[in-house]
Amino acid sequence: MPRAEGALRLWRRADTRAVVAVGFTLVLALSAQAFFLYVFAAEESLEQADHWLGQARQLVLSLDPHDISDEALLRAAHAALPGGMRAARVVVGGEVRAGIGDWPEQGRLIPVRRDDTPDRGLRSFLLLRADAFLVDSIELPGGRRVELAVPMKRFARETQEIARLLALLVLLSSIAAFGVAIVATRRAFAPLRAGTALLERIDAAHLEARLPTRATGDPVDHHAETLNRVLAGIEASFGRLRGFASDVAHELRTPLNRIRNLADVALAGGDVQALAAALERIQRSTDELGRMVDTLLLIAEVDDRRVPLERESVDVDAWLRRTVESWAPAFEERGAKLTLHSAAGTLEADRALLDRVLSNLLDNAAWHGAAGGRVELSASGDEQGILIALDDAGPGVPADERERVFERFVRLDRSRRGSAGGLGLALARSVARLLGGDLQLSASHLGGARFVWRLPRAARPPS
Questions:
Q1: For 96-121, how does the pLDDT look when each residue is reduced to its tens digit (9 = 90+)?
Q2: Could you give the dihedral angle defined by the CA atoms of residues 389, 392, 394 and 399, in that order, rounded to the nearest 10 degrees?
Q3: Which of 75-79, 177-181, 304-308, 436-440 has the least mean pLDDT?
Q4: Closest C-alpha among 405, 325, 327, 404 to residue 359
Q5: Spatial distance between the Cα atoms of 58 and 61, rounded to a whole number of angstroms
Q6: Could you tell me which residues are beta bridge partners of residue 440?
Q7: Of 177-191, 230-244, 375-389, 437-451, which range is least confident?
Q8: CATH topology of domain 219-303
Q9: Which residues fall within 8 angstroms of residue 90, CB to CB, at 6 or more apart?
């Protein structure tokens, strides 16, 4: 990998950016503190020089200007100023009449600060230079003016030493700050690394692992809780998949064994008539297998929302009437009468899927509800939707078993098999929900089971 690309990849890492952000924040905070300490030291130095010049001013003003000569006045003022290279002079009418020390002809002259002048503030460190002088001018009676100058070189040197110490302190503190940032970032990203390590260990056989949470409500805890919910959903999905695979294997084994036994018996007998009968039974078994496989595939497509919906306007009353006419002979063969009461109007839905749900319900009623002799199909509606109900006078379903009938391969009466191999009601509910409605089971006023299918009047996209 090229060096530039590697550096760019390193910069894009979240932990790198976190270290840089935390480190620079700490460095900026330390630098700001050091800067204000330096400004404070410079301001203190200038205030010290202001104090010296103030004392010299008070001394000069305390002297009687009429009884003191220029030389005596200068000696007194000069003696009041500590340090070397200080200077004082007497000016009369713009001309220097006497002086002590070398008056600064070059360099920056800084006026002394008096009580009635504003603070220098942050400008202090700009004023304090080695070539600067703090100056004061004292007006005396008789036209004399005493001028005083104090060099800032010593103060500048002291503040520069302080600045160097502060710079060293900031450098060492910056190294420590980035070290703290690295440690803090590693600790902050530790839950994410733990989650990554956990995910790397998870496979189909180890889905029970969960990330630890601290109940803090912070983003890391929220991430762990979300990931745990996802893992729980995956574990539940794998559990349903394993159960589904086991059910499929069990349900397919029965018709396959029947086909094998029929073939073995027919081959052993060798009689043409027996072979023909065996082939007919094998054909029925393979048809049953085909229907079961088709139903399983349709259930999978419905559950994954992969079924294309071709919506059209459906006259519910006419559709139910035609369906009852085609199913009535099947119920008559089982000694039952199928009746219809419908005033539902029209709805917008997929006609083929509507047929599939209703056919599965009628098939279930023909196998399990026809024994009571009465099966009623009714439909009603309002502005929001329609309700289709199928009642029978059969044995019914116990209240604690009514949800189980919608599970795949569940048959409460194992001696009476439907044409869908225990998949018809599971598919019917899945399709009903795909169409935006639902399918429920309750007790019927006829004494048996009552299936209630609710559908929206207008088509809705599946959730």
A1: 888 888 888 776 888 888 877 777 77
A2: 20
A3: 304-308
A4: 327
A5: 5
A6: 452
A7: 230-244
A8: Helix Hairpins (1.10.287)
A9: 70, 73, 74, 96, 97, 98, 99, 144, 145, 146, 147
Distance (Å, rounded) from C-alpha 439 to C-alpha 453? 5
Using alpha carbons, select from 144, 121, 155 the residue that is nearest to residue 53. Answer: 155
Nearest residue to 315 via CA among 345, 349, 343, 354: 345
The tens digit of pLDDT for each residue in 142-155 reads: 788 888 888 888 88
Residues of the chain with CATH 3.30.565.10: 311-456
Domain(s) of CATH 1.10.287.130: residues in the chain: 219-303
What value does the mean pLDDT take over residues 403-416? 68
What secondary structure, in 3-state letters, does 44-63 show?
HHHHHHHHHHHHHHHHHHHC
Give the DSSP letter of residue 200.
Answer: H
Give the C-alpha separation, 208 to 202, whole Å: 8
Assigned CATH topology for domain 311-456: Heat Shock Protein 90 (3.30.565)
Neighbours of 17 (CB within 10 A): 13
List the end-to-end C-alpha distance of the chain, in Å, as a whole number: 46
Angle at 256 between CA 251 and CA 257, to 5 degrees: 100
> Residue 389: is its pLDDT beyond 90?
yes
Over 80: is that where the pLDDT of 179 sits?
yes
CA distance 167 to 334: 100
pLDDT value of position 56: 85
Residue 224, helix vs strand vs coil: helix
- Residue 356: what are its φ and ψ, rounded to 5°? -65, -45
By the 8 A CB rule, do 211 and 232 touch? no
Distance from C-alpha of 26 to C-alpha of 20, rounded to nearest angstrom: 10
CA angle 407, 410, 416 (to 5 degrees): 140
Enter the tokens of residue 370: 């026809």
Contact (CB, 8 A) for 363 and 419 = yes
Q: Between residues 227 and 325, which one has the greater pLDDT? A: 325
Q: What are phi and psi of 313, to 5 degrees?
A: -80, 125
Average pLDDT over residues 146-171: 86
Torsion angles phi and psi, residue 88, rounded to 5: -145, 145
- Whether residue 338 contacts residue 331, with contact meaning beta carbons closer than 8 Å, is answered with yes
Residue 305 — pLDDT band, cuts 50, 70, 90? Answer: low
